[in-house]
Amino acid sequence: xxxxxxxxxxxxxxxxxxxxxxxxxxxxxxxxxxxxxxxxxxxxxxxxxxxxxxxxxxxxxxxxxxxxxxxxxxxxxxxxxxxxxxxxxxxxxxxxxxxxxxxxxxxxxxxxxxxxxxxxxxxxxxxxxxxxxxxxxxxxxxxxxxxxxxxxxxxxxxxxxxxxxxxxxxxxxxxxxxxxxxxxxxxxxxxxxxxxxxxxxxxxxxxxxxxxxxxxxxxxxxxxxxxxxxxxxxxxxxxxxxxxxxxxxxxxxxxxxxxxxxxxxxxxxxxxxxxxxxxxxxxxxxxxxxx
Length: 291
What we know:
The chain contains 9 helices and 14 strands. It is of the alpha/beta class and 291 residues long. The protein has helices at 28-42, 79-84, 144-156, 173-181, 192-201, 204-208, 231-242, 248-255, 271-279; strands spanning 8-9, 12-13, 15-20, 45-50, 72-74, 91-94, 96-100, 110-118, 135-138, 166-169, 187-191, 209-219, 223-226, 259-264.
């Protein structure tokens, strides 16, 4: 559908196109909730676009924000600094992000990577180092929680992807969880929010899976936008999100997804992710073959 971005009402476009790369790991219903909220507060239609193939726009394609096909985006953490520093990209930050509840942090915009194994293997795998030679699943080579933090932990041990006996790219955190449950692989690193929501939705997972360790904290997934979107509109979107929890109607809906509120973020906050990526430069989740 072609959208007339020039048709505005008091500086607000008739239509905002919101795109998420974070489902199905984080339920699409959560992003529908944000879309409904922004529709009510901004007084415009908000359409939700769902892209499940990648955790962010792939390197070999022009991102939809620069193309003018999307206005607001929910992406994996490494995507924002990559696009923000690209002189050809039209990407900026919405300075607000959700606070997901976690046992380790209640007031910081962070998440963790949960290393999971099947409970039947708890005696065999008492710590991450015991997983040497195992079958390991990861969701996406660009995923901070699924791949990049794993490489960092391997580097700390003086190892690389050859630490694992076999590597499988699952395509999503949910598929990685299924592979561990079905014992197709021995372990995986999973976004802590995805893990918490799945365990709440499927109580059997608590009896089947064991969290071996948690890596982090990691900067929470950012909300990005077209840089060419009017600054007043970008500030308005952030301002509305930051007070969403103050309305009991919306707070009750947020807590269904383990979100306590939205909090302020900044470009500088995501520099930590860039430093982490520099630490693992030259490493990948592909096993190295030596001759």
